[in-house]
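## retry 2 of 3
previous attempt timed out at serialization; input unchanged, resubmitting
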Amino acid sequence: MQAGLGQMRHLRRCGGGSAGGGKVTDPRAGREVTRVALKAAVAAGTYVARDLRDRDGVTRAMLRRVALRLAASERTALRGLGAGYLRRDPPV
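## retry succeeded, writing output
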């Protein structure tokens, strides 16, 4: 049985008979995911920036611990990096 020209046009318009099963993806869907990811990154950056300003913040404590380990390192460059951070932000 052969489909007529009008029926073939209808199938093509509606996506029927295609390998994707007739599903048409919305090109805006990818933009929505990107927008959500961007908002999450901005929120995380804002949290870290606020936490760095707080003297008792979690991020500063972690950075201080890393700086102490770097200052005790055997490598000169790492030792200098750790010591430089501790000079700018000495442990309380």
